[in-house]
């Protein structure tokens, strides 16, 4: 069998993504195109993603994004050998736009359709950047909707959750803290910027679930967010000016400390020596910096895809679809539903 072209469609949240990859006989995947349209600006004044707005935006963006991906790759739709689409988890209405589009393209082209897991896509995307993953590795997936530690035993084959957030996702905590500090949405980038000007030791914010009795690799960020809110509230009540850079640096330090500590501990507990960090929060400068330090000290290889591939996109779905296709899995039926609560 010769090389195959896989098209990936992503629409689980506020990004409409269409990606194209080339799958070689030996299972290697190569990025050909990655077109993304985001409705993030339309959600900004609400401080979070509004599902109805996201669904409508996918509907208008899907066709043009598809065209752009094809133009960027220099391919025609008829060159596509298989289609992968995010089946879940995500927003129901948003997912349906991608799933319906994928079914239409797969039917028209008479090619197999693969409904894949969004979380697996965040892991598979690293193979586009750094080549094949080892047989076993650990992935720290941190975004606006997820904070998970995943044990990966074959991309596209077996991924097991070994830890998750018991309340807010890491990105959600960034977005909420940004709101407290009157910084724009999404909160990650402005907090990351402000933090560079502040002292990470200025305020001792709590590190949730890091006690010796917290054996499972779970996270908790709502206590941290509440601690920031209380601290800011007290300062404002006392008429003091808020030292925004110090609050950002101290908050960011707490998040990076917990995420990296738990990821290294989980890698050691599961006897793996490769850690992949993905999702929108992976773009965080302190998280990657501290992860680099701690992984080096623990003898763990760290892989962080470039920021553009860490946030939601269609290439990650195409990459996962290619791995699933290569594994010889059966295609999904054309009556495949969208599954907002799809587990890993
Ligand atoms: O993966 P993503 O684009 O979308 C999903 O949530 O699936 O992640 C978006 C999240 C937002 O919460 C945003 O605030 C956060 O990633 N983020 C960051 C940074 N850039 C984006 N968080 C921390 N530091 C950053 N530099
Ligand atoms: Zn995502």
UniProtKB/TrEMBL annotation:
Task: Return the Gene3D superfamilies for the record.
Answer: 3.30.420.40
- The record's EC number reads 2.3.1.234
Q: Which family does it belong to?
A: Belongs to the KAE1 / TsaD family.
Q: What is this protein called?
A: tRNA N6-adenosine threonylcarbamoyltransferase
Q: Where, by residue number, does substrate bind?
A: 141-145, 175, 188, 192, 284
Q: Which UniProt keywords apply?
A: Acyltransferase, Cytoplasm, Iron, Metal-binding, Transferase, tRNA processing
A single GO CC term, please?
Answer: cytoplasm
Required co-factor(s) are: Fe(2+)
PANTHER family reported for this sequence: TRNA N6-ADENOSINE THREONYLCARBAMOYLTRANSFERASE, TRNA N6-ADENOSINE THREONYLCARBAMOYLTRANSFERASE, MITOCHONDRIAL
Record-level Gene Ontology MF annotations: iron ion binding; tRNA N(6)-L-threonylcarbamoyladenine synthase activity
Looking up PROSITE patterns in the UniProt record yields: GLYCOPROTEASE
Q: Quote the subcellular location field of this record.
A: Cytoplasm
Q: What class of enzyme is it?
A: transferase
- InterPro entries noted in UniProt: ATPase_NBD, Gcp-like_dom, KAE1/TsaD, Peptidase_M22_CS, TsaD
Record has tRNA processing as a keyword = yes
Q: Where is the Gcp-like domain?
A: 30-318
Catalytic activity reads: L-threonylcarbamoyladenylate + adenosine(37) in tRNA = N(6)-L-threonylcarbamoyladenosine(37) in tRNA + AMP + H(+)
Described purpose of this protein according to its UniProt entry: Required for the formation of a threonylcarbamoyl group on adenosine at position 37 (t(6)A37) in tRNAs that read codons beginning with adenine. Is involved in the transfer of the threonylcarbamoyl moiety of threonylcarbamoyl-AMP (TC-AMP) to the N6 group of A37, together with TsaE and TsaB. TsaD likely plays a direct catalytic role in this reaction.
What Gene Ontology terms for biological process does this UniProt record contain? tRNA threonylcarbamoyladenosine modification
Q: Which organism is it from?
A: Saccharopolyspora flava
Record-listed Fe cation binding positions: 118, 122, 312
Give the co-factor note: Binds 1 Fe(2+) ion per subunit.
């Amino acid at each position: 069998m010769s090389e195959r072209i896989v098209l990936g469609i992503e629409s689980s949240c506020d990004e409409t993504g269409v990606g194209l990859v080339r799958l070689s006989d030996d299972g290697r995947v190569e990025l050909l195109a990655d077109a993304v349209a985001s409705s993030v600006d339309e959600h900004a004044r609400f401080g979070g993603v509004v599902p109805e707005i996201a669904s409508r935006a996918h509907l208008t963006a899907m066709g043009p994004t598809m065209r752009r991906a094809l133009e960027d790759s220099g391919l025609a739709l008829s060159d596509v050998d298989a289609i992968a689409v995010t089946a879940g988890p995500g927003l129901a209405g948003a997912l349906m736009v991608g799933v319906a589009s994928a079914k239409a393209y797969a039917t028209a082209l008479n090619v197999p359709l693969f409904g894949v897991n969004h979380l697996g896509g965040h892991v598979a995307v690293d193979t586009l950047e750094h080549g094949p993953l080892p047989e076993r590795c650990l992935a720290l997936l941190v975004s606006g909707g997820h904070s998970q530690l995943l044990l990966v035993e074959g991309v596209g084959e077996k991924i097991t959750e070994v830890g998750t957030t018991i309340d807010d996702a890491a990105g959600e905590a960034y977005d909420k803290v940004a709101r407290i500090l009157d910084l724009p949405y999404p909160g990650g980038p402005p907090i990351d910027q402000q933090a560079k000007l502040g002292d990470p030791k200025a305020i001792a914010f709590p590190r949730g679930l890091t006690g010796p009795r917290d054996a499972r690799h779970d996270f908790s960020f709502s206590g941290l967010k509440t601690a920031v809110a209380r601290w800011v509230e007290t300062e404002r009540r006392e008429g003091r000016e808020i030292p925004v850079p110090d609050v950002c640096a101290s908050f960011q330090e707490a998040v990076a400390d917990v995420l990296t500590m738990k990821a290294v501990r989980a890698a050691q507990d599961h006897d793996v020596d490769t850690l992949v960090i993905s999702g929108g929060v992976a773009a965080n400068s302190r998280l990657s910096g501290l992860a680099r330090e701690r992984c080096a000290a623990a003898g763990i290889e760290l892989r962080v895809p470039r920021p553009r591939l860490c946030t939601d996109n269609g290439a990650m779905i195409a990459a996962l679809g290619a791995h699933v296709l290569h594994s010889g899995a059966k295609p999904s039926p054309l009556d495949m539903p969208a599954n907002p609560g799809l587990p890993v």
